[in-house]
Design brief:
The chain has three helices and five strands. The protein is of the alpha+beta class. Helix 1 runs antiparallel to helix 2. The longest helix has 54 residues. The protein is rod-shaped, with a radius of gyration of 34 Å.
Length: 179
């Protein structure tokens, strides 16, 4: 048996070279290269998909926090003297354990003497940072204090609020009036 050689265009089909059959070693190398290319492609696709999914999750978290942050802060800090126990019960349902540890005593008392109500109204909500488990928002709120007698007064406050996620619900974990 004579091995096939490349004749370079001499023979019955000028311009076409004869090729040797692929050996076992050559086939193994080609299969290994194909396997590496396939595994690399799958890895890139999976990483890209996971990254896109994580980006979508963070975007959803940001939108939810932006929508809920102002209402949560308003519901936690607003109180009416006539129904303060119900207001405080609602507030306790909207706060995380961190908040209860730091400010829990405030959630067990009525508004100060001579105050009919305190109403927090969010005006602007900006998201500072957010991920799937926690987030921070900067809020501009109008705080209206109605005394039992006399006119109400409204002041504007800037609040940096930290939130923790519990299932699909954001809970207030801390709040600092910064301005």
């Amino acid at each position: 048996m004579t091995p096939q050689t490349n004749t370079g265009g001499v023979g019955p089909n000028p311009g076409r070279a004869k090729k040797r059959p692929i050996g076992v070693r050559g086939a193994a190398v080609r299969l290994a290269v194909a396997a590496v290319v396939l595994v690399t492609t799958l890895a890139v696709v999976l990483v890209s998909w996971d990254s896109r999914r994580a980006g979508t999750d963070i975007a959803e978290s940001r939108d939810q926090l932006r929508t809920q942050a102002g209402t949560i802060v308003a519901d936690v800090f607003s109180v009416d003297a006539g129904r303060w126990q119900q207001d405080r019960a609602r507030a306790r349902a909207l706060v995380a354990d961190d908040f209860v540890d730091s400010y829990g005593a405030q959630l067990d008392r009525p508004p100060t003497d001579g105050t009919s109500s305190v109403t927090w109204r969010p005006e602007v909500v900006g998201i500072v940072a957010v991920d799937a488990a926690e987030g921070e928002a900067l809020l501009r709120v109008a705080v209206t204090v109605r005394p039992a007698a006399g006119p109400a007064t409204t002041v504007r406050r800037t609040v940096l609020a930290r939130f923790a996620r519990s299932d699909d619900t954001w809970l207030l974990a801390a709040a600092d009036v910064i301005g």
